[in-house]
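PROTEIN DESIGN WORKSHEET
SECTION A - STRUCTURE
LENGTH: 438
TOKENS:
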């Protein structure tokens, strides 16, 4: 199949989260994708170690999803969802609810993870007001959290660069992160750090529970380096939140749809939040879509018990877009038909062993692996944080392997269809490159 030509003029496009000047001096372009691979415009194959951007969980170019999108585009391109709807929106919501933890059955569609996060935060505020707790307006996030780029998401997020230029919502506070040096090279969930969940208790003591609406965490933090929750941490956070009437939000934009070997991290860890944020793997990333799934009591308080009229003044032109709904239903069908979540769970021990085999390679200071996601943390170069891992990313791309870099951590999160040989190839090549790297 022919691939697209490299464009002559790169000036007009402003790339997101990219060093634009450096990129345009040395562009890295992807032109085609199928299965476990991308191809560059000049036809070079790139093994996809990152499922695109943690999102193409069923692998690229799946015919079933493409066909569903084509068919829907030919039938009805768009339908407004304000006081109107279309049948596939209900099907998509019902299908998604079926794989959520028991008790979470009400789906609000968005178009991205960032929108899902801001929607969940708004639902939390609306819930507290609906039950007569309108003083609860404070939102709690966690250091080293990434919750997208909306003003809500950057405020509860724990990445200073995402906030520095833009500020923060008022009335936000943060738990400490769970990245402890004594947990380095833990296999599975780390032993130390469950007590860090007590930070929520400290914030209750500091601010008063009657000021706190919700706490949001990624069950496994992805974008800040694959941080696996210490044993007992999520359970303890759930218990403290419940005791103080604080809603618990899991941001599962990365951890959803099989990444940890189950439909959700909530299911994988056996901890049920009040709200779950999803995106990415929901449509296998073929059409942008996100969602918030709400627990029965949250929906009942806002919608069932709400006064007549619009219950939640929130929504997007493209909420439940027909093409996204078609892609979501086809994707969920594919996950079920191919048993991809169970497949990921089955491969997890091999994945973990392959990741931890890099332990003695040059520069490696920690390895974290869980489900089909791994972070290989490198010692930073003196005075140049992130430079070593970024150089590895560039070398890997040139050598035909896509990895993701966040700070000094190399993250791998392949499509769930990856073979054992491809997993070995990814870690093997990263290991060789580490040895060559200054
Ligand atoms: C945990 C988490 N939340 C939210 C987002 C934001 O999603 P989006 O880029 O679709 O807005 C991301 C993106 O990587 C994420 O990892």
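SECTION B - SEQUENCE
RESIDUE ASSIGNMENT:
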């Amino acid at each position: 199949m022919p691939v697209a030509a490299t464009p002559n003029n790169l000036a007009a496009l402003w790339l997101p989260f990219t060093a634009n000047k450096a990129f345009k001096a040395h562009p890295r372009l992807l032109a085609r994708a199928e299965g476990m691979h991308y191809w560059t415009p000049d036809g070079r194959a790139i093994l996809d170690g990152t499922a695109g951007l943690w999102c193409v969980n069923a692998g690229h170019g799946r015919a079933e999803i493409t066909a569903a999108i084509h068919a829907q585009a030919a039938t009805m391109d768009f339908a407004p969802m304000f006081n109107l709807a279309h049948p596939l929106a209900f099907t998509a919501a019902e299908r998604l609810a079926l794989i959520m933890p028991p008790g979470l059955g009400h789906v609000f569609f968005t178009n991205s993870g960032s929108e899902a996060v801001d929607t969940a935060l708004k639902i939390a505020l609306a819930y507290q007001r609906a039950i007569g707790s309108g003083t609860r307006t404070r939102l709690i996030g966690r250091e080293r959290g990434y919750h997208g780029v909306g003003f809500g998401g950057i405020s509860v997020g724990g990445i200073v660069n995402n906030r520095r230029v833009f500020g923060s919502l008022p009335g936000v506070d943060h738990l400490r992160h769970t990245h402890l040096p004594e947990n380095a090279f833990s296999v599975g969930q780390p032993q130390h750090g469950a007590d860090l969940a007590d930070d929520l208790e400290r914030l209750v003591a500091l601010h008063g529970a009657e000021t706190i609406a919700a706490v949001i965490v990624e069950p496994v933090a992805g974008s800040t380096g694959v941080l696996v929750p210490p044993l007992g941490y999520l359970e303890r956070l759930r218990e403290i939140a419940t005791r103080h009437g604080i809603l618990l939000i899991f941001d599962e934009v990365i951890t959803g749809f099989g990444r940890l070997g189950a439909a959700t991290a909530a299911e994988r860890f056996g901890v049920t939040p009040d709200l779950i944020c999803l995106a990415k793997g929901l449509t296998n990333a073929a059409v942008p879509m996100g969602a918030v799934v709400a627990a029965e009591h949250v929906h009942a308080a806002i919608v069932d018990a709400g006064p007549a009229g619009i219950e939640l003044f929130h929504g997007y032109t493209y909420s439940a877009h027909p093409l996204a709904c078609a892609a979501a239903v086809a994707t969920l069908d594919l996950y079920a038909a191919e048993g991809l979540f169970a497949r990921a769970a089955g491969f997890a021990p091999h994945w973990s062993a392959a990741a931890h085999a890099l332990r003695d390679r040059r520069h490696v200071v920690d390895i974290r692996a869980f489900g089909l996601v791994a972070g290989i943390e490198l010692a930073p170069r003196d005075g140049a944080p992130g430079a070593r891992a970024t150089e590895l990313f560039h070398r890997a791309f040139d050598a035909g392997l896509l990895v993701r870099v966040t700070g000094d951590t190399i993250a791998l999160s392949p499509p769930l269809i990856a073979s054992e040989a491809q997993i070995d190839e990814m870690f093997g090549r990263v290991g060789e490159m580490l040895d060559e790297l200054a």
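SECTION C - NOTES
Residues 112-114, 117, 146-148, 218, 222-223, 251, 253-254, 279 surround pyridoxal-5'-phosphate (CB under 6 Å).
The chain has 14 helices and 15 strands.
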